[in-house]
TrEMBL record:
Its EC number is 2.7.7.7. Residues 29-143 form the DNA polymerase III delta N-terminal domain. This is DNA polymerase III subunit delta. Gene3D superfamilies: 1.10.8.60, 1.20.272.10, P-loop containing nucleotide triphosphate hydrolases. SUPFAM superfamilies: P-loop containing nucleoside triphosphate hydrolases, post-AAA+ oligomerization domain-like. GO terms for cellular component: DNA polymerase III complex. Residues 219-327 form the DNA polymerase III delta subunit-like C-terminal domain. GO terms for biological process: DNA-templated DNA replication. InterPro entries: DNA_pol3_clamp-load_cplx_C, DNA_pol3_delta-like_C, DNA_pol3_delta_N, DNA_polIII_delta, P-loop_NTPase. It comes from bioreactor metagenome.
Length: 345
């Protein structure tokens, strides 16, 4: 039953959420990791599945790690519920608990009528300890990871699709630029857009410009399009704009977006994509957003499979260079300009 950290946090989150909503409740949960959004949703759903609103008055206890010891938490956990089948003990900011040794014994023999939820914020339990090993074998341990920059646009598309809406690749790239990897912000802005376009069920770049105020002309998606079509004048105009706004357009985010676009092109070409082919059918076969089909069909006029792989290799090299002393005295904008020159020419 134990759940632990993996490369696919979103998949693990979905599986655990489905278990909870089906009524399969564990005696205790340890929710931890870099991304608090997942813990927020899971803890809320676990409470909802464990006790009713009427039962909360006497059977729902919220404690904070800065205010209690592990012994005090377990005193609550070992109590019996009042006029209910279960009680829930929620411990927030668990990383603030100075000593956690007493949890080991409880994890090995939990109170059956208690659902204990221990939430670490931006931290994780030490995996070398006996406490962690007991938690992993006796209950549910979920560890979240922050999205990588190149995963953000795809995450946005998945989230919007789950709400029965669609979003264009340009719109998802704009949102990724604006929100970064913080899921709480991403969800808030996505929900705002969903409410704004409720009747059309589709989110476009125009909707984002209208409702959030992000420029459609100077963004990483447009830079990627310019590179994919070898439009050097447009690409360097956008790069120059990025150079005057380095905080708004950090290189790490730009690299992530470009990697996402070139990875999509690689999948398109590997699935047989080429000029004049049925791009929508190929995009579906490759698992690519159909909105990107025409974009990649156009890009296939300029990039072969080999050239695309070379571009991705350059992206990886310059991304690594930007994070090391190999960059010398070059600024982020200098590195971006040099890399794009090598890709286009």
């Amino acid at each position: 039953m134990a759940k632990d950290n993996s490369k696919n946090t979103s998949k693990q989150f979905s599986e655990l959420l489905a278990e909870v909503r089906s009524g399969k409740i564990a005696p205790f949960y340890v929710l931890m990791g870099e991304e608090p959004y997942y813990s927020d949703i899971l803890s809320e759903e676990i409470v909802k599945a464990s006790i009713t609103e009427d039962e909360k008055g006497f059977n729902y206890h919220v404690l904070y790690g800065s205010d209690v010891t592990d012994a005090q938490i377990l005193e609550y956990a070992r109590r019996y519920p009042m006029m209910a089948a279960r009680q829930v003990v929620m411990v927030r900011e668990a990383q603030m608990i100075k000593k956690q040794d007493n949890f080991e014994h409880y994890f090995n023999s939990p109170q059956p009528s208690t659902v204990l939820i221990i939430v670490f914020t931006n931290k994780s339990m030490d995996k070398r300890t006996a406490v962690y090993k007991a938690a992993k074998s006796g209950g549910v341990v979920f560890e979240s990871q922050t999205l990588k920059e190149e995963q953000v646009a795809g995450w946005i598309e998945s989230y919007v699709r789950e709400k029965s809406f669609t979003i264009t690749p340009e719109a998802s790239a704009l949102m990724a630029d604006y929100c970064g990897t913080e899921l709480r912000k991403l969800v808030m802005e996505c929900n705002k857009l969903i409410s704004a376009v409720n009747e059309t069920k589709s989110i476009t770049a125009e909707d984002i410009e209208k409702n959030i105020g992000i420029s459609r002309e100077f963004n990483t998606f447009q830079l990627g399009n310019a590179i994919l079509t070898k439009n050097s004048a447009k690409a360097f105009r956008i790069i120059a704009h990025f150079g005057t706004n380095p905080k708004q357009f950090p290189l790490v985010v730009t690299m992530g977006s470009l990697f996402y676009q070139f990875s999509g092109l690689l999948k398109f070409l590997a699935a047989g994509g080429r000029p004049g082919a049925n791009s929508f059918s190929i995009a579906s076969k490759a698992g690519i957003n159909p909105y990107s089909a025409k974009e990649f069909e156009e890009a296939s006029r300029y990039y072969s499979l080999r050239k695309t792989m070379e571009a991705i290799a350059l992206l990886r090299r310059y991304d690594s260079m930007s994070k090391s002393s190999d960059r010398g005295e070059a600024s982020d904008n200098d590195l971006l300009r040099e890399m794009v020159s090598k890709i286009i020419f």
